[in-house]
Write a structure and sequence with these properties.
The chain is α/β, with parallel strands linked by helices and about 600 residues long. About 30% of the residues lie in helices and about 15% in strands. It has three domains: about 325 residues, Glycosidases (TIM Barrel, Alpha-Beta Barrel); about 110 residues, Alpha-Beta Complex (Oligo-1,6-glucosidase, domain 2); about 90 residues, Sandwich (Immunoglobulin-like). It is built from 18 helices and 23 strands.
Length: about 600
């Protein structure tokens, strides 16, 4: 064979090999595309199986403070409806409204005088229906605050009960005096205390009996041992479910029943440093909360809500974790879809004890105690507690939003936390909260909830764009000129921008269905890994300290060498961790309070 023929044969052979390689690559690519399509279909199927509240962020609106449409200085339903686009674009899936029912407002809506109507300060039923339509048109659910434990003392049931008019005579918890003093003054049945300070018993001269109020005297406790009361509450729930609401948040549930013997005193709390005998924490509450009958009433509500497809029930219970878990029920006897998880609030009232290790302990406490098959939830702020930025530091706002949005379960965000709103100093003269007022000018700052209830900061206009009124029910924060939605909307990097990206990111199947692991936990840092089948894995790293920290995330782990930055706190301006950057996981620097999210393949 000539040299020319050899070269020609070799060229043909190379061409054949090239064709075979190309064919093999095409087959591999086709296989990869089929695999990717299969994975996408699998992931979509995994998400479609879940009820809406497992894939949604719940956003709490305090109606008095969200948006004022009338110039009254108080927020209202039409104001909330006007912000429906904002809520949709924020990426939340459900809007929970604090009470909007008819009320004398002794406790700003938690003292209800009509469970099936809207208070004029917020609008009317027509406004509510419009709000519902606006939210539903944007695929947003609406959850109402349901307050079953008590009514207003102006409710017609109570007024008739005072007069012993049947069937209302025993709608409330009435008891005779334990005795009388020398001048004929009646003694209350027991030493039970109100959460808002002072005796939980109030004397009514007309009826010659005491009634129980575990909150304000203007909030008499209903008698849930009376079947008629239970039916009244179910009728109220049906009214709103028939109107189209998507579920309820049940307020103060653990107070629903008390021990049958109202003449037995509760013991002094052994582990409390409170020495004020009129302060709620002075006593151990063995007779007035978490009674067995409470779970029976909750089961009735669960059954009622289950009659309406796709409706939702969450309950407020401030209790130790073992007691709280009972409100889930179990697989054969379900109760709430979930009781609120307040561990991140209760455990971290200040930054003093916030560490990577303590955060992991709190997460682990809920996850390991939760009944099998149940769904977790995460809360870092609400209308009863100081705002996150004030409680734990403005540098941690993004990292903590990352935490609750990317952990397994349903996150609950209090209005304004997405922009890092801060507490406002409210003077004694400006104070509205009855809990603060009950402690007087010397101690009101310890107990008032007003600082975390101030107007939503929409812009840098007067009253933060919340209201055109000369004065609002609570003053807006003086930092409104720099900390507001409009400014953050236009900024290249902002808390609001981070939150919106987070809400988009958490829709991925990895965060909804994925496993949870802690590859690295130290005093300063917690690393949280989420992984799921063939989907991308994500690593959230948070520096809980106030100073810069460099960590080796690979030490003792099976993590890959390199991760791609997906998102970071706005406090970090380093080029090395710009979103999209490839970072060596053995050498990661985080500024104080920072969170960084990395993405990589399967782990």
């Amino acid at each position: 064979m000539t040299k020319e023929e050899e070269e020609k044969e070799e060229e043909q052979q190379q061409q054949q090999e090239q064709e075979e390689m190309t064919k093999e690559e095409e087959e591999q690519q086709q296989e990869q595309e089929e695999m990717t399509k299969e994975e996408e279909e699998e992931e979509e199927e995994d998400l479609e199986e879940l009820p809406w509240w497992k894939t949604s962020i719940v956003y709490q609106v305090y109606p008095r403070s969200f948006m004022d449409s009338t110039g009254s200085g108080v927020g209202d339903l039409l104001g909330i409806a006007s912000k429906a686009d904002y809520l949709r674009d924020l990426g939340v899936g459900a809007v929970w409204l604090s009470p909007v029912f008819t009320s004398p407002m002794a406790d700003f809506g938690y003292d209800i005088s009509n469970f099936t109507d809207i208070d004029p300060v917020f609008g009317d039923l027509q406004d509510f229906d419009f709000l519902l339509e606006e939210m539903h048109a944007r695929d947003l659910k609406v959850i109402l605050d349901f307050v079953p434990n008590h009514t207003s003392d102006q409710h017609e049931w109570f007024l008739k009960s005072v007069r012993r008019e049947d069937p209302y005579t025993h709608y409330y918890v009435w008891e005779d005096p334990a005795g009388y003093n020398a001048s004929g003054h009646p003694f209350p049945p027991s030493n039970w205390l109100s959460v808002f300070r002072g005796s939980a018993w109030e004397w009514v001269e007309e009826r010659q009996q005491f009634y129980l109020h575990q909150f304000l005297a203007e909030q008499p406790d209903l008698n849930f041992r009376n079947p008629a009361v239970r039916e009244e509450m179910k009728d109220a729930m049906r009214f709103w479910l028939d109107r189209g609401v998507d579920g309820f948040r049940v307020d103060a549930l653990k107070f629903l029943f008390e021990a049958r013997n109202a003449y037995e005193d509760e013991p002094r709390a052994q582990d409390s440093d409170v020495d004020d005998p009129l302060q709620y924490e002075f006593l151990e509450h063995t007779l007035t909360v978490d009674q067995p009958e409470t779970f029976e009433a909750l089961a009735e509500w669960r059954a009622l809500v289950a009659e309406y497809e796709g409706r939702f029930l969450m309950v407020e219970v401030y209790a130790d974790v073992n007691e709280t878990m009972k409100y889930y029920g179990n697989e054969s006897h379900p109760l709430a879809d979930f009781p609120f998880n307040f561990l991140l609030i209760d455990s971290f009232q200040s930054r003093d004890n916030l560490t990577g290790e303590s955060v992991m302990d709190v997460i682990d406490e809920w996850m390991t105690n939760m009944p099998e098959g149940k769904w977790p939830n995460w809360v870092i702020g609400n209308h009863d507690n100081s705002r996150v930025a004030s409680r734990l530091g403005s540098d941690l706002v993004d990292a903590l939003n990352m935490l609750i949005l990317l952990l397994p379960g349903t996150p609950v965000t209090y209005y304004g936390e997405e922009i890092g709103m801060e507490d406002v100093f409210i003077s004694w003269e400006e104070t509205q909260d009855p809990r603060g007022l009950n402690f007087g000018p010397e101690r009101y700052l310890e107990f008032s909830r007003d600082p975390a209830r101030t107007p939503m900061q929409w812009g840098d206009e007067p009253n933060a764009g919340f209201s055109p009124a000369n004065a609002t029910w609570l003053p807006a924060n003086a930092n409104l000129t720099s900390l507001n939605v409009a400014t953050q909307d236009e900024a290249e990097a902002s808390h609001l921008g981070v939150y919106r990206q987070l809400s988009e990111l958490r829709r991925e199947v990895t965060f909804v269905r994925g496993d949870l692991a802690f590859p690295l936990v130290t005093e300063e840092v917690i690393a949280i890994l989420r992984s799921y089948k063939r989907a991308p894995s994500y690593l959230l790293v948070i520096n809980t300290s106030e100073y810069d920290v460099t960590v080796d995330l690979q030490q003792g782990t099976t993590l890959p060498e390199v991760g791609t930055v997906v998102l970071r706190s706005v406090t970090d301006t380093s080029d090395a961790t710009m979103p999209g950057s490839k970072v060596q996981l053995s050498n990661v620097t985080l500024v104080g309070g920072e969170g960084i999210i990395f993405q990589f393949g399967q782990v």
